[in-house]
Design brief:
Layout lengths: L6 H25 L6 H33 L14 H6 L11
Length: 101
């Protein structure tokens, strides 16, 4: 690729950038504590925690899946998944928007 890295490393790093971006948003939000009303601050803080949790499992699930095809290790710059691919395949989200319920 143009940056000299393999497609796999670029893909893995892009998923990590998504997680890192949410973590940066959380830090920025924490830095303005006291400048917005507490109820709004806590509501956004909770939503950012959910967003981080979902970004992490999305990264881990996607990279675990794609790794079965790449057969390559994750770059050192990418956090290792907390669970196996089988774990992520077992997750169920019956009440997620778009599930027809």
């Amino acid at each position: 690729m143009n940056n000299g890295q393999s497609f796999w490393n670029n893909l893995a790093n892009d998923y990590q950038k998504g997680v890192d971006g949410v973590r940066q948003m959380k830090k920025q939000w924490q830095s303005i504590k006291g400048t917005v009303d507490e109820q709004r601050f806590e509501q956004v803080n909770k939503l950012l925690k959910v967003q981080e949790k979902e970004a992490v499992w999305w990264r881990d699930a996607c990279l675990s899946y794609f790794q079965t095809y790449s057969k390559m290790p994750l770059p050192a710059s990418v956090e290792k998944p907390s669970h196996s691919l089988e774990y992520y395949e077992q997750l169920s989200f019956p009440y997620a928007p778009g599930n027809g319920r």
